[in-house]
Amino acid sequence: MTWDAPHGEEPADGRLVAAAADIEDAAVEAALRPKDLAEFIGQERVREQLDLVLRAARGRRATADHVLLSGAPGLGKTTLAMIVAAEMGAPIRVTSGPAIQHAGDLAAILSSLQEGEVLFLDEIHRMSRPAEEMLYMAMEDFRVDVIVGKGPGATAIPLELPPFTLVGATTRAGLLPPPLRDRFGFTGHMEFYAPRELERVIHRSAGLLDVTIDPAGAAEIAGRSRGTPRIANRLLRRVRDYAQVKADGEVTKELAARALEVYEVDGRGLDRLDRAVLLALLKLFGGGPVGLSTLSVAVGEERETVEEVAEPFLVREGLLARTPRGRIATPAAWAHLGLVPPQGSPGSVRQTPLPDM
Ligand code: ADP
Predict the structure, then answer these.
(1) Considering only CA atoms, which of 158, 160, 162, 100 is closest in space to residue 130?
(2) Is the pTM of this model over 0.85?
(3) Which atom of ligand 1 lies at the shortest distance from residue 80's CA?
(4) Would you give the end-to-end CA distance of the chain in angstroms?
(5) Alpha-carbon span 102 to 114, nearest angstrom
(6) Is the CB of residue 47 below 6 angstroms from any atom belonging to ligand 1?
(7) In 318-354, which positions are buried (b, 16+ CB within 10 angstroms) versus exposed (e)?
(8) How far is the CA of 57 from the centre of ligand 1 (A)?
(9) Is 206 left (phi over 0), alpha (psi -120 to 50) or beta?
(10) Looking at ligand 1, which atom is closest to the CA of residue 21?
(11) Exposed, middle or buried: residue 294 (CB in 10 Å: 0-12, 13-18, 19+)?
(12) 73 Cβ inside 6 Å of ligand 1
């Protein structure tokens, strides 16, 4: 496998519950990656569809169709790209959109591929426009035009490429121009994982890391992992440290809960920043509505941090809503922080209880 550039989203900003990879993750994740489709947990639909695509290609002794994987960071896109290569018995080359700023960068990579090689292009939506246009032709005709010279004397020299499989990954499928999207034979949409699936991820990783964990311990970590295997694996490593230092090494429910309290990750996977945003919204602004700028000043964070780092998960969890009048807390937010909403606030609107059956 060849890595052209560090991959991943923005730096993980030191948060234990960040979905993007940090330096430690990059070092240990290789050991935890499932090696084939049978070992890959969850994502049933993507797995089944990809299995068909790969089997059919193998049956035809052909290179597999190009594959686009979309979904949040940490859900297994890189892992699946490596599995595509492993299942096809092909080498893999790893690079990312931001590393390809010029069409020439892409031409250099494409022209050095071997026949059947898998090219994994992470964050494909962040590639430069000229590189993207070169990629269209490469994907469709396995050919690129390399421009030599500048101005009126510039000439295009056609270059034949060996057939290859492009696996593109993106967290923002909506940002891909349709001509690029259309050139993928298969698109897999990765979903957040159910707690049961994360428990399986945790048991599997615990086995590989030589950690003894009981089912309730795994469930406790899964519940705090924000639907994301990368976070589950990271929390497991922190719980393992705690178990090693403070206990006899076995991870139980109580031990996992105590360890993650030390790291300030609560029972639903909120960390200090998430809770600070919710607390300010509830205590200072009565549950809102309040503007993003005011809320950010109250928490002492940049507007972008609140909007891009804390809010997406709070919205997904149904704890905060973004409305045209500002941010509001939901009844679930009051309940989660053990506070009582003032009468008449949006948070005091209760669901009508179901009649007894
Ligand atoms: P992405 O490329 O989407 O950011 P990765 O493929 O790098 O995510 O996965 C992050 C970590 O989560 C890896 O260590 C991998 O082992 C683990 N992981 C992801 N998906 C699964 C899965 N379905 N089963 C087991 N482990 C997984």
Answers:
(1) 100
(2) yes
(3) 6
(4) 60
(5) 22
(6) no
(7) ebbbeeeebbbbbbebbebbebebeeebbbeeeeeee
(8) 24
(9) alpha
(10) 4
(11) middle
(12) yes
256: Cβ contacts below 8 Å, ≥ 6 apart: 217, 220, 221, 239
pLDDT digits (tens, 9 = 90+) for 242-290: 999 988 888 999 999 999 999 999 999 999 999 999 999 999 999 989 9
Instruction: Look up residue 217 and give its amino acid.
Output: G
Ligand 1 mean position to 33 CA, how many Å? 6
Does 230 sit in the ligand 1 pocket, CB within 6 Å? yes
Those residues with Cβ within 8 angstroms of residue 90's Cβ, 6 or more apart along the chain or in another chain: 116, 117, 118, 165
Which of 1, 32, 33, 70 to mutate to test ligand 1, by most ligand atoms within 8 A of the CB atom? 33
User: How does DSSP classify residue 283?
Assistant: I
Q: Is the CB of 40 under 6 A from ligand 1?
A: yes
